[in-house]
Amino acid sequence: MKQLSIVIPAFNAEVFLGETIGSCLNVHPSPEEIIVVDDGSSDGTPAICADFGTKIRYHRVENGGVSRARNTGASAASGRWLLFLDADDKLEPDGPAALIQAAENGRAGMAYGLVRERQQPPRAPRITGQNHAEGDPPRPALHNYWRCAVITPGSAVIRRDLHERLGGFVPGYEPMEDRDYWIKAGFLEPCAHIDRVVLDKTWRPVSAGKMDARRIWNGLRSRLALPAWCQE
What we know:
Blueprint: E1 4-10, H1 17-25, E2 33-39, H2 45-51, E3 57-61, H3 66-76, E4 81-84, E5 90-91, H4 95-105, E6 110-119, E7 126-128, H5 139-146, E8 156-159, H6 160-166, H7 177-188, E9 191-203, H8 212-231
Parallel strand pairs: 1-2, 1-4, 2-3, 6-9
Antiparallel strand pairs: 4-8, 5-9, 6-7, 6-8
Helix pairs in contact: 5-7, 7-8
C-alpha cells in the first residue's frame, strides 16, 4: 500500500509506542512510510524509535502539542493518504487498506471505520464509530458537529491534499482538535464508512479525551471560530 503514510505523534510514550509501531508493521499491504514525530519526550521514546531503525522515519521536535506534531508529520509525508495514529493505539492489519478502498470507491476525501474501545481500569470493550457521518457535504460536517462519528483519528484516512486544504489540525483546540478537523473536512468532500473494526483503542485516566473541562472549553472555542473559517 505504497500510497499510505502513517503519522504517529509521540510524547513520553515509551510504555506503549513499541506495540503501536509493531501494529503498523503488521499492516498489509505495507504502508509507504511510518513517521514518528517525537514531541520533545523526556523518557525513553527516542530509544524505542531507534530500535526500529530504518523501518520508521523519526523526527524530533520541541514540545508543541499533538496538533503541531501531526502537522509536522503530514508535511513530511509522501503518501496520497494519511492516517494519524495515537502512540498507544493499535491498527487492525487489514484496516487501512479497507479504508482507502472505501474512500476511492466512493470518490471520498476521507473514510472511517469502527473502533474497539477499551477502558483503564478494565471494563468490557465496546464497538463504536457508526455510519451517521457518511455521505456528501454538508452531511459529514453536520453529523460530526453534533456528535463526532470519527472516534479517534487513527480510525480514519484522509487524502493528503484535503488535509492541506484544511490547514491541518488547529493547535490549542486539544482535545477537540480532531472534531474540528473532521467537521471542516466534511464541509469540503464526501465521507465514506466501513462497517468493520479498524482500530483497537484504550482510554486511560490520562487520555486527552478524559479531560472534560478542556473538552467543553475548547469545543466551544472551536465552534465559535468555525463560521469565520467557513466564510473564508
